[in-house]
Amino acid sequence: MDAAQNIAHEIQHDLESDGDQFLTFILAGEEYGVDILRVQEIKGWDSVTPIPNTPEYIRGVINLRGTIVPIIDLRRRFQLEAVEYGPMTVVIVLRVDDPDGGKSRVMGLVVDAVSDVYNVPEGAIKAAPDFGSVVDVNFVKGLATLEDVMVIMLDIDRLLNADELSVVAKIA
Amino acid sequence: MSIDMEQFKITFVEESLEGLDTMESVLLDMHPGEADAEAIDNIFRAAHSIKGGAATFGLGDIANFTHVVETLLDEVRNGDRDITQEAIVLFLSSVDCIREMLSADQNDEAIDQGRIEEVKAGLDKMLGSEQESEPASTENNETVSDIPSNQENGWRVIFKPFPGMLRTGNDVVRMFRELAELGEFNAAVNADSLPPLIDMDPEEAYLNWQITLRGEIDKAQISEIFEWVEDDCELEILPLADGNAETVATGVTNNDSTEKNQPVDLQVANPPPERRAAEDRRQEGDRRQPARKASPPESSSIRVGIDKIDDLINMVGELVITQSMLGQLGGDFDMSRVERLNDGLSELERNTRELQESVMRIRMLPISFAFNRFPRMVHDLSAKLDKKIELTMSGEQTELDKTVMEKIGDPLVHLVRNSIDHGIETPEARKAAGKPETGVVNLNAYHQGGNIIIEITDDGAGLNHEKILAKAIERGLVGANEELPEEKVYELLFEPGFSTADVVSDVSGRGVGMDVVKRNIMALGGGVDVKSVPGEGSTFTIRLPLTLAILDGQLVRVGDNTYIIPLVSIVESLLVDQKNVNEIAGKAEVYQLRSDYLPIIRLYEVFDVEPDRRSLDDGLLVVVEGDGKKGGLLVDELLGQQQVVIKSLETNFRRVEGLSGATILGDGTVALIVDVAGVVRLSRDDGRGSNEQIVAA
Question: What's the rounded Cα separation, in Å, for the pair B164 and B575?
Fold first, then answer.
């Protein structure tokens, strides 16, 4: 009886706390999260074809089963110190939607390692404090503490919007 | 039972648009007074299918409108009415209206009711005037097209479905809904034959109805709704006026029934229909333009001839045979069978290539798809501009990739408009110049190498050399005393902001400048040239690649990177002979090739990669030509030639200056395709700083 009740509780709990699922990954010791529904696949780092005249954080393009997918180094995108790619280095392939209703794109993010998948209840994500011009929080959806770890939730649509990429490319 | 009606609707819309195109082209060929029975039949059939389809999909407006058109056409078909110029114009406007209503329905836009009402009033007036002027034919009308006079104000319909009716997929609710759209709808149900629940078969029809419909409605409209169930029910349609006690004739207004004759004075204040139609169309053109851009990218379909499909199936069959042959060979292979393996592999290569070719052919459509809109446009524009213009077309069967076709439409329209607006003179001017009054605009298409060439020729006044030059000097594009060869002068027309309106005439185009025309064509990997003889006319020649999907490429290596240079843009490849290299001002390097001087473009500099060597000595120079400009690309090695499938970088990324796309090589890696014109441009911009680059991009 107790066991059954427990299970029922657990299910109930799961249902209530459902919220959204997030995949988290490690980048320079910090944990970042992205909406898991956007993740198409996770693959190991493989060589890319570099694209000329693009910002340094665009490593190049790969062939993902016949589609050309650009690969972005998140460390360099955040202007963090670059590291050698190791066996843990992975590429997270994501679907990026255009906020203006255009076609969605597929892009890959190079990160240090994948971490975990969390159920994040709604309301657990708090708005990020404003750092003024020190850190651009535009692409941060919010912060959440999950199992004692602070996770930075990324708004990948903003982060990987190709328009922004092209603007950056032009100024650079 | 739920069927996704949407998919049928898409087909319906496509077929209707095709039907409208047919109607339009037949109408344009028609001359007042001579009603070719076959032509009328063609139009009638198209109108009839649109009407039927529209009613099925609940597009009452379109069905009603088309019905009026059909009624009028029916009269023409039966010889009760002569086809007049006015009628042709009216039918053409109706075609526009139906098209507009269809697109409005597809894109969920509001319809310009005023315009539709106007055209409809015109149609009704024509129907009405016939009846007034020839009272004898009124009866005729009635018997032929089943149009009753308006004295009744409703119908009683006794509808007794046979038990099996519902099994045929007919839905009583839908039929009643349609009836309700016609007028004031009242149905009394008779449930006498309804069995007890336990005996009931849910798929059988047990009910019958007595329906009263008030309003001025055609009997034909009602019987049309019951058309599909006629054989599965007992149906009686009786006029209400037959001594029916329920009939209260007063005060029944009927907004839904648009079939009745509208008051005709609506039209009196309007300009004559011919001019109005042309003007409307112009406005409509202007209006449509932004609307089309805003609409979301639609998935389109393509119609393929059955012979092309059969070819494909044959080839796949051969491929399967080759595959099984190779499979067997691989099962127990030893070196004695190497020869058979080679045979098999070359067979496989042939199969693959043929398969690829026929798949590509599926995307090919005759260019008549793009040309078809022009007869109408020329017809309207010449009426509007009071010019006499004949349009001739040749090479309509020349095939072109569908994507290219879609993108070339607007530039073509612009060029043809230009020829009509600015090229062809007024009949008086032509007479004075000793030319026939009727000007000729000719559209021609043919294949040349891997390209398709489209020529737009007019026999008008030609381009005014001096005026263009004067304008260019005024705008500072050309120095005051600069001598320019003829072609260079005409190229000025394509300069951004170079107003063609000021050059020749005050009639403006569609707001798309010639620079946009050129840019669009160049974006497709093509080019455009002008030739003109004063007094004799001008020719615009558009050169386009046949397809955007596959290209013959030369693979080159620079350091660790493999690039692909389109074979069409390569003139030749050579080893650098140091004594032909000159340096201008210590910066720009030029290479003397016979009588030409080529700028040397170091590909590793443009693409910022590490090359094998930087010295020019014995370097490999690939001489390329893009956008009319030549250059020598310095590469490390020529690898080989192959056909590559072009993959867009824009799908997931964005456009990159100097690259036209990417492709996947045999080993699965990505190689970038060089945009020759872009690289030539980039190499020049490098010296001038990156600001220029942003403008250029």
Answer: 85
- Residue to substitute from A51, A98, A163, A170, interface B, most B β-carbons within 10 A: A51
Token pair for residue A52? 């000329």
Q: What is d(CA A91, CA B618) in angstroms, rounded to the nearest whole number?
A: 42
Q: Identify the domain boundary among B325, B346, B362.
A: B362
> Cα–Cα–Cα angle for B543, B548, B549, nearest 5°?
150
Please give the interface size between A and B, counted as residue pairs whose CB atoms are below 8 Å apart.
78
Q: What is the pLDDT of residue B258?
A: 40
Q: Considering only CB atoms, which chain B residues are within 8 Å of A164? A: none
Say which DSSP state B340 is in. Answer: H
Are B143 and B199 part of one and the same domain?
A: no
Write the pLDDT tens digit of every residue in A64-111: 888 899 999 999 888 888 888 888 899 999 998 877 767 788 999 999
Q: Structurally, how many domains does chain B consist of?
A: 5
Using the beta-carbon criterion (under 8 Å), do B694 and A165 form an inter-chain contact?
no
**Residues from chain B contacting residue A63 (CB–CB below 8 Å):** 664, 668-670
In A, which residues are within 8 Å of B657 by CB distance? 53
Contact B669 A61 (CB under 8 A): no
At residue A164, the pLDDT reads 54
Residue B433 lies in a domain: yes
pLDDT band at A18 (very low <50, low <70, confident <90, very high): low
Q: Which of A106, A163, A166 has the CB atom closest to B652's CB atom?
A: A106
- Find where tokens 């509007």 sit: B384
Q: Is residue B268 part of a domain?
A: no
Give the CA radius of gyration of chain B: 33
Q: What is the pLDDT of residue B247?
A: 39
Q: How many other C-beta atoms are found inside a 10 Å radius of the C-beta of residue B46?
A: 25
| Residue labelled with tokens 């129907």 | B127
Q: Which CATH number do you get for residue B532?
A: 3.30.565.10
d(CA A13, CA B87): 74
Tell me if the pTM is above 0.95. Answer: no
Verify that B563 and B484 share a domain, yes or no: no
Chain B residues touching A54 at Cβ < 8 A: 656
Residue range(s) defining the domain that contains residue B40: 5-147
User: What's the ipTM?
Assistant: 0.79
* End position of a domain, from candidates B91, B117, B147: B147
Measure the CA–CA gap between A136 and B283, rounded to whole angstroms.
47
- Taking chain B (697 residues) in consecutive chunks of 10 residues, what is each chunk's mean pLDDT? 66 82 81 74 83 80 83 80 79 85 78 78 74 40 41 72 76 80 79 78 80 77 76 77 44 41 40 44 42 45 81 90 89 84 88 83 83 86 85 86 83 86 85 87 83 88 79 76 74 70 45 74 81 86 78 90 89 88 82 87 89 84 83 91 84 83 86 88 62 36
B669 touches A: beta carbon within 8 Å: yes
- What pLDDT score does B454 carry? 92
Mean pLDDT of chain A: 81
Does residue B523 share a domain with residue B390?
yes
Chain A residues with a Cβ under 8 Å from any Cβ in chain B: 47-54, 60-63, 66-70, 101, 103, 105-107, 162-163, 165-166, 169-170
In a domain, B595, yes or no: yes
Is residue B434 less than 8 Å (CB to CB) from chain A?
no
User: Which of B551, B666, B647, B633 lies closest to A61, judged by CA?
Assistant: B647
Residues with Cβ within 8 Å of residue B410, at least 6 apart in sequence: B512, B520
Q: What is the pLDDT of residue B117?
A: 81
Verify that B579 and B489 share a domain, yes or no: no
Query: Domain A20-171 belongs to what architecture?
Result: Beta Barrel (2.40)
User: Any idea what the Cα angle at residue B249 is, between residues B244 and B250, rounded to 5°?
Assistant: 150
In chain B, residues 621-650 whose CB comes closer than 8 Å to chain A: 647-649
- Confidence at residue A15, expressed as pLDDT on a 0 to 100 scale: 56
Tell me which H or E stretch contains B195: none
